[in-house]
Every structure is written in C-alpha cells, then in structure tokens.
C-alpha cells in the first residue's frame, strides 16, 4: 500500500502544480479549427433566408444536421447549440453513419457534410440539391462540385467559398454581407457526371 | 465482508477522480458564452490554434467507448500498437516479455486473453490458434493510424463471437490523407524505421505503400541477467482507395506481409521448479489481403461488402509448427427507414483452418510432441440492429447476432442499450447484453493415444464443448463543459459461465470438465481537464472485484479460483505545449498487485513514469526524446502460464525523428 501512498502524493503534486495557473500565451481571438468552423456555420445560418414553407414548418428548432462522422469537438458544438436564429434555436442532429431518411432531411435547415463523406460527395449532393437546405462543408472544392459553402483553412485563418448558383437553385437567399466577403465559385462539371 | 471491500474501493475510485475534477470545475465559466455574438469579420480575423485538439470522444454512444486519436499516439511515444493501448482507461495492458503482451478489459487477462476482439480496418486479428491476439505481429507505421476505437464491455450483437469484454477497432487513414511521405527513425534501447509514401493515381483514386523495421530490447530476468529475448521484425504493405465519379461506388484494397524472428525462452518440461529455461527460436510470418466495396445506394441506404484472407505461420525451433488461414466474407447494410429508425443488418461467413504441422525442428526430448492434424472451423452469422430515436432525448439501440459454428449449432448474442440526453452536457446510458466466446483449437484436449508409452499426444476435440458466456449489465454517465473538462463514469456487473475441459492426460474414458462461474463488478472513471490551451490532463482509474468459482464435474466440489488481474488501475497522462515548437508529455501509471496461479507468481503493485520531450525545428521535422519507466530500473508486469521466472520490463530511452516530405 505504500506504493499507493507514494502514487497519491505524486498525484497531489500534479494537481497543485496545475492549481497555480501560469500566464497563458498572449492571445486575442484564437479558436480550435472545429470551433471556428462551427461559429462560421452559425453565422451563415443567421444570414440565410429559407423559403416561407420551409422555415415556418412548425418546428421550433433550426436543425443543424451533421452528415457523416462528427468533426466537431464538444466546445465547438456548445458554441452554437441552442443559440438563436430568428425565432428558432439551433439544434444539432448527428447522422454519423451517413444515412438519413428523406423525412429526416426534410427537417434539416443546415447540412454540414463531414470530410468522412468525401468519396460519396457527388451522390450526396445529388440527393441534397432538391431540398431548401444550406449545405456547408470543409471538403475542398465542395462548392464547385455542387455544394453551397466551403470552409477553407488558409494558413492560420479560415476563409470561405460560396457558389451563389446552387444557393439560388435551392430557393435560399444568403445576405450580400456574406457574399461580399466570400470567394465566389461556379459549378464545374469536373467530377459531376 | 466483500461488500465492505467494494465500498472501500468504490470510495477510492471516486476520490481519485473527483478530488481533481471538483477542483477543475471550480471557476470554470462556460467558455462558449457569447461566441455567437462575434461578427463574420471577427471570425475572419480569428486564428486557428493547431495545438488545440478536439475531444472527439464518442459522447453519444451508449457504451463505455474511448478513442485514441493520431495525436494521442504521437504524443504517447509509442512505437508499436500495444504500447499505444496503454492509454485506454480501464484496459489492462501488461508486458509479459519483449514479444508477449497480456491485454484485456474487465478481467481474465493473460497471454491468451480470449475475451477481447481486435479488428484492424475490419479484419479480425483474433487468432484461431491461440484464441487471442498475437500482438507481436500487429504493427503499422503508426502515423498511418487515424484512430483506435475501444469499447469496453460486450460488442457481440454487431461484432459477433469473442467480443465479450471488449472490442478494439484500429482504423487506418484514408489514402487521400497520407499523400505526403513520412520517414520515422528511432534508436536507443530499441531501434527501428518506418517509411510511408502516398500518391494519387486518378481523380478519386489514391494509394500508399509502407515499410517498417523494428528491433526490440531483450529485457532482463529476475536476477538481472539478460533474458536474450530480443526480436527483429520487418513488414510492408499497401492500401488503395478509389471512388467512381458519381460517388456511388467506392473500393478499398489493402495488404501486408511480415516476417519476424523472436527469441522466446520456454521451461523445460517437468522442470518448472528448477527454472531451467531453454531458448526457443521462433519464426513468425504471414500476410493478409482485404478488399471492400462501398455502395451508396441513396441518401438513406448504404451497403458494404468485404472480403479478407489472412495467413499466419509460426515455426518454433523446439516446440511446434503451426499455421492458420482465415477466409472471411462480410456484408452490411445501413438503412434509414424513417426519421426514427435506423436499421443495420449484416451477414458474415468465416472459414478458419489451423494446421499442426509435422515437427521438423531440433529433435528435443524436452517438450511434448503431438500428432499433426488440421482443424477446420466454419462460422456463419447474421445480425440485425435498430437504432431508434424515440424522441429528442432518448435513443434506444437493440439487436442481436445469431451464429452457427462447428461446435455450436446456434448462438444468440442480443443487446439492448438506452441513451438519455437529460441536458446538453449530460448523458446517461445503460445496457444489457449477452456475448459468447466460441471454443477454439486450443480448447482441445491433449490426450495420449492408446499406446501411451510413445509420449506422443494427439489433440482431441470435445464435440459438445460449450461457448463461454457473459451476461453484462452496464450503466454510465458523461458530463462535459466544453473541451475544458469532461467526466466519464461507467459501472458494470458481469455474470460469466466458462466451461473448459481439463488437460486430462490420464484417462480418455472419463473426460473431466471444469465449469467456472464468475461474477465481476467494476467501476471505471476518466476525467479530462484542459485548464489552458497548452496543458491537458487525463486522469483515469478503474476498479474491479472479480470472483471465480470453479466446479469440477467429477468431484462435484466448488473452489475459488485466482485471477491474474489487478483490481485497481490508475493513470495520469499530461501533455504540455511549452512553446508551439516544444511539447512535453508526462505519463504516470499505477497498477495494483495481482495474484498468480500460484503464490510465488504474485505481481507486486508497480508505478511507471514515462516521458516524452519533443521539438519541431521545422514544420516538417520532429525530434523526440522518449523515456519509459523513468522511476524504476525493472519490474515484472505479468506471469505467463506456469513460468516462475518472468521477465522484467526495463527502463528504456530512445530518440526518435520524423520527417514529412
């Protein structure tokens, strides 16, 4: 048992050491990549207009559907969960196996396509394009392959690409405030047929 | 009496985990507050910290799940897969010798840990020869591993037989993520090299090849002399991924070949007490090939068909020559029926062949001989599972696997699990499951032929050998406050029924069975705390009370049996980013004492302290100094079988360099 006592003592030293916080590195706005991507996605939802029929469907939640393996850590999800968008509040729904019924899809307002779905993207986008759902992903070329918004890591920052055509086709409107800040792309046929 | 003991241990587990967690949660304002107020311009100005790691734990899983990420593996300083598994809370990882490991969860650990199922990219590593995993032949360039998912507790309703006390899924990276080359070299008390190169061969087609070489330390024996149990192994392999233009079809193929020479001492027959060890030079080689086809039928339906072939051969200079071949076909279909129900079903067929080959090593009289024989096992399984989102807060998963096996016409492995989300940052879950371990070749009885004077044994199969069975009751709770703090608590109660034949060398007419009835009760807790972006602590502890009663069928008497499992495990892993270029990792583990099969084999409790100091002089170069067992020159971790002279795990140092190109 003396080893246990020793071990316990060792542990308390660690706890104590951690109890006196050392000065953290000087930092202004610094986030984990996933948190920043989640915050961007929330901002996009704030500046998006859905068709009346879609938005006033009696659902009190703005459903943020993650399709594929969840790329977000807990703090990233906490940062947007239950936050207001107009008269609704954000509800995160996960479809980790990548499959969801048309019924479930009907309820999604935002679909975040996880990088795990990279290789079925064309099939996925084909299914999604008939719905008034804002599609966001961090898969490279997502917008030009028929998605709406792509989050791109560039150096230390996250930037975004928007395909205005796909947004328009889905019957959505994204505020010009967002469009002006984005790199605009068009749907290219590469990899689509 | 036992209840009192349990309470005292429970108290200890809770104390260890809560003493720190209470402190940690003190003054922890919800960091997420107000972030939604940031403007889009502010987001664009924000910087990404690469050092901040996402806690991608499986918070919404109704099981005791844990994920080792690539970053965890890198920072652990591990050079092989079993070393990395030491990070899993509640998993008992003990090194018997340089080549042999005992790894299991929730008890019954041993060289033959037959209740743990291990898979790599869907290929079962569970050997039909030794009803466990040959850990010494499982390796990869560790940089190619994306993550290791560990589930403690039964997973048989989906994974099938042998997923009794846990399932480990080792998942390698998609080839699109390993385009850059990677060269790792390490040297010191052990040395090795790993090389990986990837390329793109078409629009949606990627590939990689790898090679790895490792020479491990030889360890010392109890009296401090070199045990000469060193080993040298090399391996190579490839992986291809391809998807068609519309993304409906994706193909993956991979394969490995490996060869290693392992020096393993064995006891001279009938001379256990005198500790006479003789060198048994062992050659282990093998290879495997896996192909998988993914079909994305629609958004609501996805199918996977998989085939693998695995060959393994072990040639010992003194003991035996054995090989195994496995052919496996697997099909799975995930289907979203409607908003509430997600149905998964699958089929599996496995043929495994074990051959005891004519022995052509040194003709020694020291070991028992056997008659060559081939054992064929067929396994056919089907499973169905429904994940039912009952409402926003409750998710119910239920299903069963049904299997047919040579020894057993019919096995059922049902499971029912419920996940409840009472609030955003809280999860409660509970489950009941039944799992089985199928009889393996090594459950066969060695019995002398009619002419017993020849001393040649034949292996004889009990045709009505039953499967080992577990009924497991589990419950768990998770809490987190952003990435700063999380707490995970699991309790379980298992009832196990094992039926094993006694190695009956005296009478072929009265085969004796021993029936083991066991119960285990345990608590597992883990706390992750990140007080600052540059410091992370993970404290975990587990406690288990295991009671094994053995009933001898001939004598009808019941006795207590001893398990070789420690009752109490504690680990504290800390990671510091001293500067963006310098990392320090300190890892402390305490393992409680464990009994041996006989009293002389008791393993005293031990503490280990591992450390890693790494420096990135350039974004593509990493240099690390790694130390294992800093606090202790040598200690034993596990006794194998009846060995009286276990090997001592030593203090080890090595330098490691990694170059990305």
Description:
The complex is a heterodimer of chains A (193) and B (661). Chain A is α/β, with parallel strands linked by helices. Chain A has one domain (31-184): Response regulator (Rossmann fold), CATH 3.40.50. Helix content of chain A is 36%, strand content 24%. Chain A has 8 helices and 11 strands. An 8-stranded mixed beta sheet of chain A has the order 4-5-3-6-7-8-9-11. Chain A is globular. In chain B, strand 27 and strand 28 form a beta hairpin. Chain B is globular. In chain B, 7% of the residues lie in helices and 56% in strands. Chain B has a single domain (2-26, 55-188, 199-225, 241-660), classed as TonB-dependent receptor, beta-barrel domain (Maltoporin, Chain A, Beta Barrel). Chain B has a 22-stranded antiparallel barrel. In chain B, strands 2-9-10-5-6 form a 5-stranded mixed beta sheet. Mean pLDDT of chain B is 84; it is low at 24-31, 448-456 and 504-510. Chain B is mainly beta and 661 residues long. Strand 1 of chain A pairs parallel with strand 1 (47-48) of chain B.
């Amino acid at each position: 048992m003396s080893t246990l006592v020793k071990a316990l003592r060792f542990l308390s030293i660690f706890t104590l050491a951690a109890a006196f916080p050392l000065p953290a590195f000087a930092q202004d706005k610094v986030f984990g990549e996933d948190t920043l991507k989640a915050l961007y996605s929330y901002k996009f939802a704030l500046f998006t207009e859905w068709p009346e029929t879609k938005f006033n469907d009696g659902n009190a939640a703005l459903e943020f559907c993650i399709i594929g393996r969840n790329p977000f850590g807990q703090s990233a999800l906490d940062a947007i969960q239950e936050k207001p968008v107009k008269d609704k509040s954000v509800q995160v729904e996960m479809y980790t196996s990548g499959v969801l019924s048309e019924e479930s899809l009907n309820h999604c307002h935002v679909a975040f396509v996880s990088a795990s779905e990279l290789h079925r993207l064309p099939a996925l986008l084909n299914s999604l394009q008939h719905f008034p759902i804002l599609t966001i992903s961090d898969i490279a070329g997502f917008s030009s392959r028929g998605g709406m918004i792509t989050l791109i890591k560039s150096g230390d920052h996250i930037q975004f690409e928007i395909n205005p055509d796909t947004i328009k086709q889905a019957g959505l409107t994204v505020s010009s405030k967002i469009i002006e800040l984005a790199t605009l792309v068009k749907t290219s046929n590469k990899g689509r047929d | 009496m036992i209840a009192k003991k349990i309470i005292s241990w429970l108290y200890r587990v809770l104390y260890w985990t809560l003493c720190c967690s209470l402190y940690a949660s003190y003054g922890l304002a919800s960091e997420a507050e107000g972030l939604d107020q940031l403007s889009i311009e502010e987001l664009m100005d924000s910087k990404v910290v690469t050092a901040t790691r996402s806690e991608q734990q499986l918070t919404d899983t109704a099981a005791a799940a844990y994920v080792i990420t690539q970053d965890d593996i890198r920072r652990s300083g591990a050079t092989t897969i079993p070393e990395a598994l030491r990070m899993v809370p509640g998993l008992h990882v003990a090194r018997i010798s340089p080549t042999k490991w005992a790894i299991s969860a929730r008890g019954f650990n041993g060289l033959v840990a037959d209740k743990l199922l291990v898979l790599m990219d869907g290929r079962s590593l569970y050997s039909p020869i030794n009803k466990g995993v040959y850990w010494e032949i499982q390796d990869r360039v560790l940089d190619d591993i994306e993550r290791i998912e560990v589930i403690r507790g039964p997973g048989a309703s989906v994974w099938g037989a042998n997923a009794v006390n846990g399932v480990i899924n080792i998942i390698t990276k998609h080839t699109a993520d390993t385009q850059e080359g990677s060269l790792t070299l390490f040297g010191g008390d052990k040395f090795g090299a790993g090389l990986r190169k990837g390329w793109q061969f078409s629009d949606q087609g990627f590939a990689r090849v790898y090679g790895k070489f490792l020479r491990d330390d030889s360890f010392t024996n109890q009296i401090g002399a070199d045990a000469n149990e060193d080993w040298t192994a090399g391996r190579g392999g490839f992986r291809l991924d391809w998807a068609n233009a519309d993304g409906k079809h994706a193909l993956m193929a991979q394969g490995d070949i490996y060869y290693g020479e392992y020096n393993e001492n064995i006891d001279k027959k009938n001379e256990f007490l005198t500790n006479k060890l003789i060198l048994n030079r062992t050659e282990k080689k093998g290879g495997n090939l896996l192909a998988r086809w993914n079909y994305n039928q629609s958004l609501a339906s996805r199918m996977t068909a998989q085939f693998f072939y695995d060959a393994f051969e072990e040639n010992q200079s003194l003991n035996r020559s054995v090989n195994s071949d496995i052919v496996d076909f697997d099909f799975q279909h995930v289907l979203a029926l409607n908003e509430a129900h997600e149905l998964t079903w699958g089929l599996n067929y496995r043929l495994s062949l074990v051959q005891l080959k004519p022995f052509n090593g040194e003709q020694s009289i020291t070991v028992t001989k056997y008659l060559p024989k081939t054992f064929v096992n067929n396994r056919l399984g089907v499973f169905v599972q429904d994940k039912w989102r009952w409402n926003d807060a409750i998710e119910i998963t239920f299903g069963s696997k049904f299997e047919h096996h040579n020894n057993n016409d019919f096995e059922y492995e049902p499971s029912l699990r419920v996940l409840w989300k009472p609030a955003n940052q809280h999860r409660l879950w509970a489950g009941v499951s039944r799992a089985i371990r199928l009889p393996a070749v090594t459950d066969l009885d060695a019995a002398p032929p009619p002419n017993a004077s020849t001393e040649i044994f034949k292996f004889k199969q009990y045709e009505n050998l039953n499967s080992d069975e577990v009924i497991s009751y589990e419950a768990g709770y998770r809490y987190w406050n952003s990435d700063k703090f999380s707490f995970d608590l699991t309790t379980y109660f298992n009832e196990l029924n094992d039926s094993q034949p006694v190695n009956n060398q005296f009478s072929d007419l009265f085969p004796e069975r021993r029936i083991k009835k066991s119960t285990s009760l345990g608590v597992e807790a883990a706390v992750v705390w990140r007080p600052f972006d540059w410091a992370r602590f993970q404290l975990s502890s587990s406690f288990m009370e295991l009671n094994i009663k053995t009933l001898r069928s001939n004598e009808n008497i019941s006795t207590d049996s001893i398990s070789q499992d420690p009752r109490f495990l504690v680990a504290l892993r800390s990671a510091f980013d001293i500067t963006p270029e310098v990392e320090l990792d300190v890892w402390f583990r305490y393992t409680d004492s464990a009994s041996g099969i006989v009293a002389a084999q008791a393993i005293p409790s031990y503490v280990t302290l591992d450390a890693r100091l790494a420096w990135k002089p350039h974004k593509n170069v990493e240099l690390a100094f790694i130390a294992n067992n800093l606090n202790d020159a040598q200690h034993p971790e596990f006794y194998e079988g009846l060995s009286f002279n276990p090997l001592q795990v030593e203090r080890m140092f090595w330098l490691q360099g990694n170059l990305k190109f």
